[in-house]
């Protein structure tokens, strides 16, 4: 087995108020996503999203079922979205080879039994993924940045000028519940998802990358009137419960991947919080 997925429980906002740094990190932070020749991650009981990293270095890796699924194959009752955050590589899906470049995405639907991730020739292979329970098979689809729905938000004056690439969202590709995309901050801008929001209908996971040198991100979470922060490094992810805001400020600009699962697939369904109401 080249796959290690650890279970994380879901959380109650009242309990969360008493969490110190250690409890917040143990319950929400995912530190070691890229382990040499391994698929590593977390099975979150928040909407049963699996959040992981795939890091083939000198041998191909197969997507095998893990114990939590009680299934023959990983995608027996699931769908998966993969975004390449490393060098151009290939992914084999039941014999069909997809070439996936840096910042391109691949959706693979329920029922596919053989998925193989190859190490890239050019250099380092780092693939980030989210997987959610699925009820129906939708076709495997590659989505490049040109296929994405693109929105630019914020301004340099507010240090939140950023471009949102909606890659695996329902207006671009058919999925059962998974929605994923990528947000790039412009140089000089550090704030993402400010103004912040919650969406009780869907949980979310964030993966921060393109953080150079020793730069870090302070990620904010909690109910809007009871927030906490946690420091993240490059290539780390964080689980965001449906009741929690998810916002961040970096010591530089950066890029992050957001992924959601839950009640609806309406990207715009957000309860925005006025910044002056945050506590
Ligand atoms: O629910 C949507 C997600 O939180 C992100 O798309 C928000 C985001 O990328 C941003 O505003 O910077
Ligand atoms: Zn959100």
UniProtKB/TrEMBL annotation:
Keywords: Isomerase, Metal-binding, Zinc. Its EC number is 5.3.1.17. One of its GO terms (biological process) is D-galacturonate catabolic process. It holds the Pfam family KduI. SUPFAM superfamilies: RmlC-like cupins (SSF51182). GO terms for molecular function: 4-deoxy-L-threo-5-hexosulose-uronate ketol-isomerase activity; zinc ion binding. It comes from the Bacteria. Its cofactor is Zn(2+). Binds 1 zinc ion per subunit. It is an enzyme of class 5 (isomerase). InterPro entries: KduI, KduI/IolB_isomerase, KduI_N, RmlC-like_jellyroll, RmlC_Cupin_sf. Zn(2+) binds at residues 197, 199, 204, 246. It catalyses: 5-dehydro-4-deoxy-D-glucuronate = 3-deoxy-D-glycero-2,5-hexodiulosonate. Pathway: Glycan metabolism; pectin degradation; 2-dehydro-3-deoxy-D-gluconate from pectin: step 4/5. Belongs to the KduI family. Catalyzes the isomerization of 5-dehydro-4-deoxy-D-glucuronate to 3-deoxy-D-glycero-2,5-hexodiulosonate. This is 4-deoxy-L-threo-5-hexosulose-uronate ketol-isomerase. It comes from Algoriphagus machipongonensis. The gene is kduI.
């Amino acid at each position: 087995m080249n796959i290690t997925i650890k279970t994380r429980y879901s959380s109650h906002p009242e309990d969360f108020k008493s969490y110190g740094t250690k409890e917040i990190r143990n319950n929400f932070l995912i530190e070691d996503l890229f382990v040499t020749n391994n698929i590593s991650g977390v099975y979150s009981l928040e909407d049963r999203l699996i959040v992981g990293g795939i890091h083939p270095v000198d041998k191909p890796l197969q997507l095998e079922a893990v114990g939590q699924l009680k299934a023959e194959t990983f995608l027996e009752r699931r769908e998966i979205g993969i975004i390449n955050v490393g060098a151009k590589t290939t992914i084999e899906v039941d014999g069909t080879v997809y070439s996936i470049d840096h910042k391109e995405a691949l959706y693979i639907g329920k029922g596919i039994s053989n998925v193989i991730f190859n190490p890239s020739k050019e250099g380092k292979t780092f693939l980030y993924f989210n997987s959610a329970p699925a009820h129906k098979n939708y076709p495997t689809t590659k989505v490049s940045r040109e296929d994405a729905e693109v929105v630019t938000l914020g301004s340099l004056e507010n240090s939140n000028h950023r471009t949102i690439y909606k890659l695996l969202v329902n207006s671009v590709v058919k999925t059962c519940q998974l929605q994923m995309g990528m947000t790039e901050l412009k140089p000089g801008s550090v704030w993402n998802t400010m103004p912040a929001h919650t969406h009780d209908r869907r949980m979310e996971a964030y993966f921060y990358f393109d953080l150079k040198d020793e730069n870090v991100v302070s990620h904010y979470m909690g109910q809007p009137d009871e927030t906490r922060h946690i420091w993240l490094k490059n290539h780390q992810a964080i689980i965001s419960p449906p009741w929690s805001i998810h916002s961040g400020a970096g010591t530089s600009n950066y890029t992050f991947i957001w992924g959601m699962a839950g009640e609806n697939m309406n990207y715009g369904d957000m309860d925005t919080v006025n910044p002056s109401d945050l506590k």
